[in-house]
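Field reference: "sequence" (input) and "structure" (output). Example, Solute carrier family 12 member 3:
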Amino acid sequence: MTSAAVEEGSLEEQQKTDEKIHNQPIFYINEINGSAKCQNSAAEGNGTKIHLTTTNDVGQNAVDCSPKGRSATICGGDSHPQSQFTIARTKFAELIRMRAPKSFRTARKGSSTMDDPEMFGSSANSQPEKDGFGWITGVLIRCILCIFGATLFLRMSWIAGQAGLILGGVVVLLSFLVVVVTAISMSAIATNGEVKNGGCYYLISRSLGPEFGGSIGLILYIANTVNASMNCVGLAEAIVRLLKQDYGFHLTDGGINDVRIYATCTCLFLQAIIFIGTEFENKTQLALMGTIWICIISHFVGTLLPLSDIQRRRGVVGFSFGVLLDNLWPDFRADNTFITMFGVYFPAMTGIMAGANMSGDLKDPSKSIPRGTFWAIAITTLTYLWCMVITALTTVRDATGFSEPELHPTTHRYTVPSCRANDTCRFGLANDYDVMTLQGAWSPLITVGIFSTTLSSASGCLIGAPRILQALCADKMFPYMHPFAKGYRKTNDPFRAYFLTLLIAISAIMIGELNSIADLISNFFLAAFAITNFACFDASAAKSPGFRPGFRFYNKWLSLFGSALCVLIMFVLHWPTSLVTFFVFIVLFVFIKHNKSHINWGTSTEANRYRRALNSLLKISRTEDHVKNYRPQLLVLSGNPVARQALVDFAYCISNGRSLLLCGHIVPHCSSVQATALIRTLNNQFTDWLYEQHIKGFYSAVAHQSLRAGVQGLLQTVGLGKMQPNILLIGYNSHWLTQCEVSSTDNDNNSSGPHWYKEYMGVIADAFEANMAVCVFRNENDGLDHSALLSKEDQLFVRLPDLLHSDRNSSLTDDLNRGVSAKKVRPKAKAQQNSVLPTCSPSRAELSLPTLMDRLPSVTAVFPSGTNGNGSMEGMNGTAKGSRRVSSGAYLRKYDHFRTAGRPSMSAKFRTQIKGGFVDVWWLYDDGGLVLLLSHLLREHNTYLPNAKLRIFTICSKLNPDDVHQKLVEMLKKFRIHFASVHVISEDYDEGKLYQETIEEYQELMNTLNPAGTTGQAISQEIIDKTQSKTMRYLRQRELLLEFSSASTVVLISMPFATANIVLSPVYGMWLELLSRDMPPMLFVRGNRTSVITHTS
């Protein structure tokens, strides 16, 4: 065959292949602007093709790509073979990951449908199924073995003899009620999401929070450790009695010291097995499980066999209805009571948490924990009741050991032996712990059962307790304990925690007496059960959408009942120990809450806090305002609150954490998606800063190119319900005079003044129109903007993503589209490139980075457009000092608080308490009493002027000063305003009484505003004539202020009253300047004529 024929055949084959491919759906992934674009046509190329083999050529498939390029869904068309479809969609997901940006590929798991196994199935790279124990080997067997402790063979017959069958059954059923309710609550929490290592501690901490989980987790760890000691002591008691009675052997005294030695050796032996590994330990548990059930069967079989003489002499008489009647009611000996019986039995049932403690080693904890726990409770409770009933049916309460019990010929009931009168009987249900051993088909086998139960229970506690400690240390709940979080091997065995647990267990063994340890264990576990039940109740009562447990057979009121029942039983059992337990819990709770307040695991505590806040807002929204409940709710136009810390601190002296404080910030940029993302980031940063400064307030920002329009937006939208600001606090514009100067080149001849002054004063006028109270604060001549004092060492930097329109792959925009704010981390710096200042357009609004990024770190005015260090405001088009062209990936500075050492005095001025200060109030107008209320709040004990002396000044021109003084004093007493003195000044405001210096200051201001020889005038002659009388009045008030209040600590004065056109005129700024120049910090106050104080009760 010729080469041409071969080539022609190849071409024909290629055409057929292309045609076949063309008829199948072909998906292209084109990377355009960082997003995946899907095509269903083979005509458009440059993409990666993914072919899905269909069952027929008619069916069509399409790929629906999300607009954000974050996920893709294969939809439409006929059905495909499952294997081919799974492979195809898996390749599709892998290719999208491969082509996606790095930030997308490394995104948090679950943020995209690409990581959803239900969406794309499994692949070769998918994680293998988790290895672990099932519900039988991991939970059921462990719980049964932990519940079947020394109590089963050594105490159940004794409880039947002491409490009788009725009360003994009540003890068992009451314990059953407690553990079932607790298991229900634990199952509800365990099925509400993935459960990790830590067991009950993990469930409580992720439900109620770290303070609850950490506190009860440590208590639970100690309880499990001491429970292991209790079982080792039980085993040691059995060994000592066995050796002493049968062989007459003892190591030391044949008593408590021998028990300590044997128990310690047992603990060391079990710990050695655990060190080998959990797999080996689990096989050991299976062997012990079989041994225990053989022993239980052996006991029942033994009761059916003929009795020996030893058995009869020791009180075993076989099944008898008369014996049952004798053992039906209680007959307590010594100091034993029902509470004592419960305290002895209940620790056995605390083993229900053995399976939960192994949550990190389970294959599916959410399913295994409920199923295994409930079955274990049912099986063990029935077994305990069975053993109690069998012993009560076959053994008398008291026996001498020398003679068989005597049967009365008429009543057919056994008589009470003579040793009962002086409590010298050694055998029988009420006296002998080894009744079940005596009844067994083969006594040594029951002894083996005792060994097995104690070994299994102790082993479960010794392997579960260290894992609780490991989880506690992994979460760094307590300082200096993180080394115990380290795990070894693939099973993450906490070897270091093993050693610590072993030391604590041996220390508890030194107590030596089983019943004493049981009382302590009961108290600890009841506390853990109470918190577990309360966790379920709290999570359910919070009504959070996130609480959706798979286990639906729970009830919040049942959980609350269980929690209350556990607390009640705690105090009934042993109230001194309960008080100690609660004291330890509270100490740990406060410690963790103080050190781990930043942890947020989405707990029910947060859900309840939200619910309470929402309900409170709804309630007060329907409540009419009353003057007695008035609170000053401040909207502080602080701009960057770090740069104006003095203003924020002064405002906080008024709100003091008892009323609303909002720091308003007008970001000088047009509204856009990027601006919204930036404001969100700023909100996170400044909220953190307010928290670090211990200021209970909020931060709210609006993006707008106009200060006045931005403030209008804040006034209209800020707040929620009744939690809305009623006072606007703004810093004094120190450079108003410079802004109002009219140069020869200025074409603005408007009598209301130039643009920037109108913007500032327009904010005040708008607040008046909105019926809000207004306060203007002037901090002497120092100003309020201290951004120039902030050095680079005082600033923390946060990397902000690119916001330039030239970089369309903005990660900030992507984060916004995903609903995730920008991360507060500083990655490695990227290569920088200069950018051009973008402009706003109706189609696409862009952020002005040179204005934004360079000015925000040193925002100087309420509207951050310049840096002058005195809180002044420059033109919007002006450039901040030291500004530079912003590069791609610019840094936004996040301010930390000022350092304690070398803190500038002016920035901390209103944080340092002043003793013996003076607060002067110049009450010139009726404003509803706001100026009096603010003066009272400024003198509270936790402000910067605690217990300062209050001096009240007022001016009257026509009334009798003595009458005014008397009425004012009476009114202040009715208002309960504590004052030092009241001064009534009679003044006619005659221009001839003004000092020459005052007149010269006024003329200097007028010459600056209306310079001679210029065509433009800042203040028109009409305004000057109209306000002449008021100007003279304020000039005289300035002289009085300098005379009486120049040495005061702070001055509060009624703000000059004027119409809107006067407020917008520079003459109003001149009034404020004249009243506050060369004065202490001064607060101009104007209420909205709504009463804020009252004399009624």
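The domain at 135-595 is CATH 1.20.1740.10 (Amino acid/polyamine transporter I).
Confidence is low (pLDDT under 50) at residues 1-8, 19-128, 742-753, 791-905.
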